[in-house]
Amino acid sequence: MRGRGRFITVEGLEGAGKSTCLAGIEQYLRGRGLDPVMTREPGGTPLGEAIRQLLLGFDHADMNADAETLLVFAARAEHLAKVIRPALEAGRPVVCDRFTDATYAYQGGGRGLGEARIEALESWVQQGLVPDLTVLLDVPIELGLARAGRRSAPDRFEQERLEFFERARAMYRARAQRMPERIVMIDASAPAEEVLAAITSALGRLLDGAG
Ligand code: TMP
């Protein structure tokens, strides 16, 4: 019998190098004979992508922080129901570009909502489902924003002030320290091959159940 698929998430501030890391994870999993579902948040479904436009665009630039958080979880509920749970139940690994740790970081830390309200939404929407492994790419804020700024015009989050990202990064790091068995924090300012080696070793431990 084939077991439930593994749920892997990738987190980090803008410009941390998530795309390279996601490509490396996909390649590694395919090399192990697996067929991962590659997806992202906010997004991953037609409804989720529509909500992403609302969150990242400027039509509602001054949206209330609670409304923002509820939109994130509305997208997540749809994503879990339509994509993530069915794939995991079919035994496929799911690799998600951001998940609920981003809500803790950006809404809990960045927007200052704190963790308790997010915990309430997390338990309602996820019903105990949490990632098996989270790769947190930790990068100094100025370096990340400079990399992200070279790519495209800033979205609604990218144009936030430095302090917003400082609070978000602090929340990510605090969670990694509190949950070291799930969240592997990697210094993303290291050379790309070192970052990739750290990721594949964490994936190896997850798949082989060692160490
Ligand atoms: P990205 O996935 O293309 O990096 O951008 C998504 C943006 O959405 C990013 O700035 C972080 C933000 N975000 C939140 O604020 N809360 C969330 O829960 C998620 C998943 C993303």
Topology summary:
Elements: E1 7-12, H1 18-31, E2 37-40, H2 46-56, H3 65-89, E3 94-97, H4 100-110, H5 116-126, E4 133-138, H6 141-151, H7 162-178, E5 183-187, H8 192-208
Helix pairs in contact: 1-8, 2-3, 3-5, 4-7
The structure holds thymidine-5'-phosphate.
Thymidine-5'-phosphate (TMP) binds at residues 14, 40-42, 56, 72, 97-98, 102-103, 106-107, 157.
Describe the structure.
- With 211 residues, the chain is α/β, with parallel strands linked by helices.
- The chain has eight helices and five strands; from the N terminus they run βαβααβααβααβα.
- The chain has a five-stranded parallel beta sheet, sandwiched between helices.
- Helix 1 (18-31) packs across helix 8 (192-208) and helix 4 (100-110) packs across helix 7.
- The chain is globular.
- Thymidine-5'-phosphate binds next to helix 4.
Number of helices: 8
Q: Strands of the largest sheet, in order across it?
A: 2-3-1-4-5
Q: How large, in whole angstroms, is the Cα Rg?
A: 16 Å
Share of residues in helices: 55-70%
Basic shape = globular
- H-E order: EHEHHEHHEHHEH
Strand content: 5-15%
Distance between the termini: 25 Å
Class from secondary-structure proportions: alpha/beta
Biggest β-sheet, characterized?
A: 5 strands, parallel
In this entry the ligands are: thymidine-5'-phosphate
Strand count: 5
Record keyword descriptors for this entry:
55% helix; alpha/beta; five-stranded parallel β-sheet; binds thymidine-5'-phosphate
Brief digest:
The protein is of the alpha/beta class. It has helices at residues 18-31, 46-56, 65-89, 100-110, 116-126, 141-151, 162-178, 192-208, and strands at 7-12, 37-40, 94-97, 133-138, 183-187. The protein has a five-stranded parallel beta sheet, with helices on both faces.
